[in-house]
Task: structure prediction
Amino acid sequence: MSDKPLKGKTLFITGASRGIGLAIGKRAAQDGANIVIAAKSKRKHPKLPGTIFTAAEEIEQAGGKALPLVVDVRSEESVEAGVAAAVEEFGGIDILVNNASAIYLSPTEATPMKRYDLMHQVNIRGTFLCSKICTPHLKKSDNPHILNISPPLNMEERWFAPHVAYTMAKFGMSMCVLGMAGEYRSHGFGVNALWPRTAIATSAVKNLLGGDEAISQSRKPEIMADAAHWIFSQKASETNGNFFIDDEVLEKAGVTDFDQYAITPGKPLMPDFFV
Result:
């Protein structure tokens, strides 16, 4: 296998202005990939780092080509325009990463319906919509991958009871994997999910799960990026329908030192939901 298997490949990554999406883009950029940053952050947010433009700078510095696009995954017109711009710029799409996600961890009576709607519009509908619009272009790729940043379908009460609305929205993304892996198998697609075993140091973890203390018990987004890179490096038709966990993927890839990914090496890690 080439030491830069993603050289010249085009990745369409939703929610890539920060966090896991940006890390996946930067890792692919090290191979010389083209990265479409499809996200909403045009201007700096008071609580969130990064915009599509700062992300594009980081992608270019890492060795890739970047196309920053304002894309709202809730809007069919916005996604269609973004995909058309990506294809015009880079000639096609090889990999779709459905990373954009909304989170609101609340019991049923405390869930405002606008939050319920946002999670379902971004997580499930956005994933389905981006997959639908990208698929005709993926069919032309010689190694087409769809990767959803979503959990294994562990249908256990404990994962639903504390936050039914959020769990439904994330599991909806995983149900897209289950269905589309079968639907596009004959086209040679690799449709998979990837989920972290531990909390990942992102704005969502800092803002929702306990601030700096939660971050100190997390791993860096690079663990997800390295795992995604390994998945994309595989033959898509032979890597399909999997619900991957980040450290299990990297064990397959021969990684033995996981301390390199810890924010605080040696400190106990906070497990993520659904694992």
User: Anything to note?
Assistant: Strands lie at 10-14, 34-39, 65-70, 95-98, 145-148, 190-195, 243-245. The longest helix spans residues 113-138. The chain has a mean pLDDT of 95.
